[in-house]
Amino acid sequence: MLQWFTTAPRRTLALICAACVAMLAFGLYLQHVVGLEPCPMCIVQRYALILVAIFTGLASLRGQKGWWMSFSVLALLASGFGAFVAARQSWLQWYPPEFATCGRDFYGMIEHYSFSRSIPMIFQGSGDCAAIDWTFLGGSIANWSFVCFAAFFMVCLLLLVKVKKH
């Protein structure tokens, strides 16, 4: 099974890109059709997902080893960051803050505060970030997001380690 991933790295990277696009489409469906509003941490996870999609998409375009390896490293970093944010949000959902506040939305923070001050505010989370509005097989959106980011991270790492050995 692992050999399938490593024998055609460009195909594997294209599949990760397609999975990211599908996840983004599902997130937009939940927002615009179902009516779930994303919290600040959800927005950051979307940006990480967009980065993973862009990097894996670019990596899958050319067969030169240096090209796809460079973009795979960037995808690895973006998926690691996305996994961190999703894990933090999952932790907030499991152990919600004692005083849940709605807080500002992501764009409101950026508008009213400097970027360097807004970033820590995002990771503090809020009542919105701790809310579980949708579940599938017992996992929240943040839980499933973590699973997907961790899988993307592991596949990119596997590709890079396997190629480095040869």
Task: Tell me what you see in this structure.
By secondary structure, the chain is mostly helical. It has helices at residues 2-7, 9-34, 40-59, 65-94, 106-112, 115-124, 127-130, 141-165, and strands spanning 135-136, 139-140. A hairpin with a 2-residue loop joins strand 1 and strand 2 (139-140). The longest helix is centred in the middle third of the chain and has 30 residues, at 65-94. It is globular, with a radius of gyration of 17 Å.
Strand order, biggest sheet?
Answer: 1-2
The number of E-state strands comes to 2
* Helix content estimate: over 70%
**Fraction of residues in β-strands:** under 5%
Cα-atom radius of gyration: 17 Å
Keywords:
166 residues, two-stranded antiparallel ribbon, mainly alpha
Detail the topology: elements first, then pairings.
Elements: H1 2-7, H2 9-34, H3 40-59, H4 65-94, H5 106-112, H6 115-124, H7 127-130, E1 135-136, E2 139-140, H8 141-165
Antiparallel strand pairs: 1-2
Helix pairs in contact: 2-3, 2-8, 3-4, 3-8, 4-8
Concise description?
This protein has helices spanning 2-7, 9-34, 40-59, 65-94, 106-112, 115-124, 127-130, 141-165, and strands at 135-136, 139-140.
